Every structure is written in structure tokens, then in C-alpha cells.
Amino acid sequence: MSSNIEEQIQQERENARAVCNTDGSNAAECAAAWDAVEELQAEASHQRQSKPKANSLEQYCSDNPDAVECRIYDD
């Protein structure tokens, strides 16, 4: 899924560059094209942050960060 959104971001970047080269960097269409890029980047970031926990211990520690099993010791 993430590679698909990365492809969409790249396509929107190319589109934004083309629009801005054609219409000028101050054109409303140029700003709208870059807004589309930013929205896709935000979605990609959201997807990375909301990945499911890798295993049951990570899920448990997420729900119970003070549990003995979840303590992290620095060396």
C-alpha cells in the first residue's frame, strides 16, 4: 500500500512541476497542485504511524506501559 501512495506522490509532484512551469509559480492552479502533493504526503505519514503492532507483547506494552514486562533499561 505504501509503495502505491509513494507512486501517487511522485506523480503529483511531476504534475505540480508541470502546472507551475506552464501557469507560473504564483498561479492558483500551481498552489492547488502542490496542495495535492502535501495531502498525499500527510496521508502517507498517517499510514506509517498507524501501522498495527508487530506482536502481542508490543500491543500489551502499548496498552500497559508501566508493566514490569515492558520496562526498558538503558545500558
Please tell me about this protein's structure.
The chain is mainly alpha-helical. The chain has one domain. 69% of the residues lie in helices and 0% in strands. The protein has helices at 2-23, 28-49, 56-63. The longest helix has 22 residues, at 2-23. The two termini are 37 Å apart.
In this structure, how is the largest beta sheet organized? none
Number of helical elements: 3
User: How many domains?
Assistant: 1
Apparent shape: rod-shaped
Structural class: mainly alpha
Oligomeric state of the chains in view: single chain
Beta-strand residue fraction: under 5%
Low-confidence stretches: none
Radius of gyration, whole Å = 20 Å
**Amino-to-carboxy terminus distance:** 37 Å
Helix content: 55-70%
Q: Strand tally, please?
A: 0
The helix/strand order is: HHH
State mean pLDDT (0 to 100 scale): 86
Would you summarize the structure shown here?
It contains three helices and no strands. By secondary structure, the chain is mainly α.
Give the tags.
single chain, 75 residues, mainly alpha, 0% strand
Spell out the blueprint of helices and strands.
Layout: H1 2-23, H2 28-49, H3 56-63
Helix pairs in contact: 1-2
